[in-house]
Design a protein that fits this description.
The complex is a heterodimer of chains A (408) and B (140). By secondary structure, chain A is an alpha+beta fold. Chain A has 15 helices and 13 strands. Chain B has one domain. Chain B is globular and about 45 Å long. The chains are: A alpha+beta (408), B mainly beta (140).
C-alpha cells in the first residue's frame, strides 16, 4: 500500500566558514551547490525535484533557483512568515504538507547565507564605524512596512542587535529563577565539545573551557562573546518526499512525525522587540503551546525524545526552550544544563550534537535539521546510540517552529 | 533643549499613521498609550483595532512617566557612530498604563544600582525641534 507520509531522504551542505571567508562563490551559487548535494545524497535526479521551500530573509528566491537548477516544472514554492531563524522547521513542515497533499513529489528546503557578501547579522545591519559627515536631522521617518511601524518602538533605543534583544528575556529568567551564568557557560562549552568532533564545524579546532568562557568580553549583559552564535558563510539543504518514494532510495529514511509553527497571542516578533509579550511568556522561548501540539500530533511525550537539535542563536534562548519543550520544569533549565544533561556522551538529553549555531555554523538553523537526519541515520560525529526520535527546533523568543523526526 | 544622552546618529523612530500620534505627543513631552473606547483595554504599539474586543474606537491616555524596570541589558557594542557605551536598554513597566511596558533606555543613573523592579521616571531627550524620545532614569 502506498503512503504519502513525508520523509527526509537527502541532506547536503557546502563548506561552512566564518563570515566573509566565502567570497569567490556567490551566496546563490552556494544554494545551488547545497541543493545538488542533497539531491545526490537522496539518490534522486534534479529532474525529480518539483518543489522548493524556504523561509523569511531568503535572498535567493525559489522561482530563480528553480530556473537556474533547470527544474522541469516547479509545482510548489513556499516561504514561511517567520523571522529568519524561526522558520526552518516550518519550511520542513510546509514541504511535508506539499508532498502529503500531492501538490509535489520531491521538495527541497534550502538556506544559503553569506554574511560577508551582505551584512553581519550581529550588527543588525548598522555600521557604527561608518563615517557620518552630517547625520540627518533626527525626525520621525515613514515606516515602509508594518514591521517598521512596530520597530519604531525598539530602534530609537538602539534595540536592533540580536545580542541585546535576546539578553532581555534571559536577564528576566535569571531574575525570576536564579539562573546562573554558569549554566549559560556550561551550555556553550558543551556545544563546543560536540563541534570539536565535527569536521564541518567552524569552531572545531578551537577548544573552550569555562575559564575561556568567562574571560571573553561582555557583549550585552548577560551575553558574553561565546553566548552569541557564529556569523557564518555556507549553505545546506534537505530533501523531502513521500514514504512511497523514500522506500526505493538507499538512505535510511527519516519520518516527519509532526511539525508545528506559530506564536502565542499578542507575540508579534516576541521579546526580541515587543515589550508587551504576555508576562507568562516573556521569560520563555514562547514555544510551550506549540510544543504541546507537536507532541500531541505525534502521540509522544518529552521523555520519548532521544536527541535534540535546539536552535541556539544565544545560550539563554536554548535554556528557555528546554523548559518550553518539557525536558525540565519551568525555571529549572539552569540546574538541568549545569548537571551535564546536554552532553552527547551520557547526558540525559543530548543536544546539538553538531555543535549548533554557537560552534558548527550559523546557517539560520537549517543545519539543525541536517544534523537531526544524521543523528537518526546513525551518521552524527557525536552519535547517540539507538536514537529513534529527534526534536529539532527553530529560533525561539521570536515566532518559531519545530519538527519531531523519527527513525524508520 | 533638554540634556542630550545620545547622538543624532542613533536610529530615529519609524511610524505610520496609526503609530504617529504617540510620537506627536512625545514631541510635547507627553507619554501616551492607546486605549480602547469600547472595553478600556490599553495597547502599545498603537494598532488600528483592539486585539481584545476588535473595536476600532480608541483614544490616548497620558501616563505618569513613572514605572519600574521589568528587565534590562547593558550593551557594550555600538550600533551608531559616537554612541555612548555602555548603553542600557531596558523594558519599563509603565505605572497607570493598564499593564503596558515599553522599550527604552536608562540614562543619567548609577549603572551599578540597576535591578529589575527598581522604580524609574521618564526623562525627555529632545533630539530635534520635532522629535523627543522618552528615556528613563532611576527614581530619586
Amino acid at each position: 500500500m502506498s503512503s504519502r507520509r513525508a520523509h527526509l531522504v537527502g541532506i547536503g551542505e557546502t563548506q561552512y566558514a566564518r563570515w566573509g571567508q566565502i567570497g569567490d562563490v556567490t551566496e546563490h551559487a552556494l544554494a545551488l551547490q547545497a541543493i545538488q548535494r542533497a539531491v545526490a545524497d537522496a539518490g534522486l535526479s534534479m529532474d525529480d525535484v518539483d518543489g522548493l521551500a524556504s523561509y523569511a530573509e531568503d535572498r535567493n528566491e525559489a522561482i530563480y533557483v528553480a530556473a537556474e537548477l533547470g527544474l522541469p516544472e516547479l509545482r510548489f514554492a513556499n516561504m514561511v512568515w517567520m523571522p529568519g531563524g524561526g522558520g526552518p522547521c516550518a519550511a520542513i513542515g510546509n514541504a511535508a504538507m506539499a508532498v502529503e497533499t500531492g501538490q509535489a513529489e520531491v521538495v527541497v528546503v534550502y538556506r544559503s547565507l553569506c554574511q560577508g557578501q551582505f551584512f553581519r547579522f550581529g550588527t543588525g545591519g548598522m555600521d557604527a564605524s561608518a563615517p557620518v559627515p552630517e547625520p540627518p536631522k533626527p525626525t520621525v521617518n515613514p515606516a515602509n512596512s508594518l514591521m517598521m511601524a512596530w520597530m519604531g518602538f525598539a530602534m530609537p533605543f538602539g534595540l536592533i542587535q540580536a545580542a541585546a534583544a535576546y539578553a532581555l528575556p534571559t536577564r528576566r529568567h535569571m531574575h525570576l529563577y536564579g539562573t546562573r551564568p554558569e549554566a549559560l557557560g556550561k551550555l556553550a562549552v558543551t556545544f563546543r565539545e560536540h563541534a570539536s568532533r565535527n569536521p564541518r564545524a567552524v569552531m572545531g579546532q578551537k577548544p573552550m573551557t569555562m575559564e575561556d568562557y568567562f574571560a571573553a568580553p561582555m557583549i550585552a549583559d548577560p551575553h558574553r562573546l561565546f553566548d552569541c552564535c557564529l556569523e557564518s558563510d555556507g549553505a545546506c539543504a534537505v530533501v523531502v518526499t513521500t514514504e512511497e518514494r523514500a522506500r526505493d532510495l538507499s538512505n535510511r529514511p527519516v519520518e516527519v512525525l509532526s511539525s508545528v509553527q506559530g506564536t502565542p497571542k499578542g507575540f508579534a516578533f516576541g521579546p526580541f522587540t515587543n515589550a508587551n509579550v504576555a508576562d507568562e511568556y516573556y521569560a520563555t522561548g514562547g514555544c510551550e503551546p506549540m510544543a504541546k501540539r507537536l507532541y500531541a500530533k505525534a502521540g509522544l511525550t518529552p521523555s520519548d525524545v532521544d536527541v535534540a537539535q535546539i536552535y541556539d542563536h544565544f545560550t539563554g534562548c536554548v535554556l528557555m526552550q528546554i523548559e518550553d519543550y518539557g525536558f525540565c520544569k519551568r525555571g529549572e533549565g539552569g540546574p538541568f544544563i549545569e548537571s551535564g544533561a546536554l552532553s552527547w556522551h551520557g547526558g540525559s538529553m543530548p543536544t546539538n550534537t553538531h555543535g549548533g549555531s554557537l560552534s558548527e555554523a550559523y546557517i539560520h538553523g537549517l543545519n539543525h535539521v541536517v544534523e537531526g537526519v544524521r543523528a537518526l541515520r546513525g551518521e552524527s560525529t557525536s552519535p547517540v546510540e539507538g536514537a529513534e526520535v529527534c526534536l529539532v527546533t527553530s529560533g525561539a523568543c521570536v515566532p518559531s517552529s519545530a519538527v519531531l523526526l523519527g527513525r524508520k | 533643549m533638554s540634556e542630550r544622552f545620545f547622538p543624532d546618529t542613533m536610529p530615529s523612530p519609524t511610524a505610520d499613521a496609526v503609530t504617529l500620534p504617540f510620537w506627536e505627543a512625545a514631541a510635547k513631552h507627553r507619554l501616551v498609550v492607546q486605549r480602547c473606547t469600547a472595553c478600556s483595554q490599553t495597547r502599545l504599539p498603537p494598532m488600528p483595532i483592539c486585539p481584545e474586543c476588535r473595536s476600532d474606537g480608541a483614544d490616548w491616555q497620558e501616563v505618569s512617566g513613572r514605572g519600574e524596570i521589568y528587565t534590562f541589558t547593558t550593551v557594550h557594542r555600538p550600533i551608531a557612530a559616537n554612541q555612548p557605551l555602555p548603553t542600557i536598554i531596558a523594558v519599563i513597566a509603565l505605572e497607570g498604563s493598564g499593564g503596558l511596558r515599553m522599550i527604552s533606555n536608562i540614562v543619567d543613573s548609577d549603572t551599578e544600582q540597576l535591578e529589575i523592579g527598581k522604580p524609574v521616571e521618564v526623562v525627555w531627550e529632545d533630539m530635534s525641534d520635532d522629535l523627543a524620545i522618552p528615556r528613563f532614569k532611576l527614581a530619586s
